[in-house]
Specification:
Elements lengths: L2 H17 L4 H34 L2 H36 L17
Family: Belongs to the EARLY FLOWERING 4 family.
Pfam families: Elf4 (PF07011)
Main location: nucleus
Amino acid sequence: MKRNGETKRRRNVAEDAGQGGEDPAMWENLDRNFRQVQSVLDRNRSLIQQVNDNHQSRMADNMSKNVALIQELNGNITKVVSMYSDLNTNFSSAFHGGKNGHEGGSSGTRAN
């Protein structure tokens, strides 16, 4: 796992932004959004493990539980795609003259 490295990298990016005169609130927003994405990805990892365990058990009840787990996983993948799209839009807007990532066509995180 790279979590310690990721945390250190995020902290360094935020510190560099503050020293470089960039908007610290923008970096905090990006960091918060990346944490939300990571939370969904962590949940997906757990779902995949549950699906694998159920499949290996070869029990009918466990196999039927996989339907709901895979549906949740599919929905989460859609969420992650949307979240990354919003991050891209907000990040691009912030660096191309947008204010708080709201110019350029996106109004923030999409509701799912």
